């Protein structure tokens, strides 16, 4: 399987929104992706393209010396094939090249698949936000990574 990881553009908008909507019970408002692409200088937005199709996306926020992983998802048809790992790795390495030294994120307590991926990168749990997710009052686990040599 041969895919490329590249910066997200406005041309990817519809496919990125579709991946977001199929992947999360609380998807972002579609306009948020437009904002990230056009109006947020802190945004670092990536996609994975396979045979002309966007199959995964990641939005990060570069804040001072940290990359906050705001969202990451692989289209369900393409999960479990190493794409999410490659995408996260790419975003972390790119942020390191820009001067980031740490990364952090929030993840649902029940999202064991994502947590397993993050732990395999070295992310550790270092806090929790109680009833953070509005659809089911689920807690968010806060995870951080204090080195970006991934
Ligand atoms: C989390 C997500 C992005 C992973 O994407 P992916 O392309 O399937 O990931 P990969 O195939 O690269 O797998 C990466 C790691 O995730 C974990 N993983 C993936 N599929 C898994 C499964 N079915 N069961 C348990 N762990 C799994 C493993 O740790 C895996 O690493 P390994 O293959 O070396 O064991 C994807 O499952 C997804 O889009 N989920 C819905 C959206 C989401 O929850 N995003 C995270 C929000 S915090």
Helix fraction? 25-40%
**Major sheet characteristics:** 7 strands, mixed
Supply the helix-strand structural class.
Answer: alpha+beta
Q: How many structural domains can be distinguished in the coordinates?
A: 1
Small molecules bound in the structure, each named once: coenzyme A
Overview of the structural elements:
With 150 residues, this protein is α+β, with helices and mostly antiparallel strands. It has a single domain (3-145), classed as 3-Layer(aba) Sandwich (Aminopeptidase). The chain is 31% helix and 39% strand. The protein is built from four helices and seven strands; from the N terminus they run E-H-H-E-E-E-H-E-H-E-E. The chain has helices at residues 13-23, 30-38, 83-98, 112-121, and strands at residues 3-7, 43-50, 53-63, 66-74, 102-108, 124-133, 138-145. A hairpin with a 2-residue loop joins strand 2 (43-50) and strand 3. The longest helix has 16 residues, at 83-98. The mean pLDDT is 97.
Task: Annotate the secondary structure layout.
Layout: E1 3-7, H1 13-23, H2 30-38, E2 43-50, E3 53-63, E4 66-74, H3 83-98, E5 102-108, H4 112-121, E6 124-133, E7 138-145
Parallel strand pairs: 4-5
Antiparallel strand pairs: 1-2, 2-3, 3-4, 5-7, 6-7
The structure holds coenzyme A (COA).
Coenzyme A binds near residues 23, 85 and 107.
């Amino acid at each position: 399987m041969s895919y490329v990881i590249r910066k997200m553009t406005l041309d990817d908008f519809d496919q990125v929104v579709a991946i977001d909507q199929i992947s999360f019970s609380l998807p972002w408002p579609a306009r948020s992706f437009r904002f990230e692409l056009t109006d947020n200088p802190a945004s670092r937005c990536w996609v994975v393209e396979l045979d002309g199709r966007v199959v995964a996306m990641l939005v990060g926020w570069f804040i001072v010396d940290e990359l906050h992983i705001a969202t990451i998802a692989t289209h369900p048809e393409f999960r479990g094939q190493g794409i999410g790992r490659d995408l996260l790795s790419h975003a972390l390495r790119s942020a390191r090249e820009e001067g980031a030294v740490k990364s952090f994120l929030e993840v649902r307590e029940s999202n064991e698949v994502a947590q397993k991926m993050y732990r395999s990168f070295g992310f550790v749990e270092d806090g929790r936000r109680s009833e953070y997710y509005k659809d089911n009052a689920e807690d968010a686990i806060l995870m951080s990574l204090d080195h970006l040599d991934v």
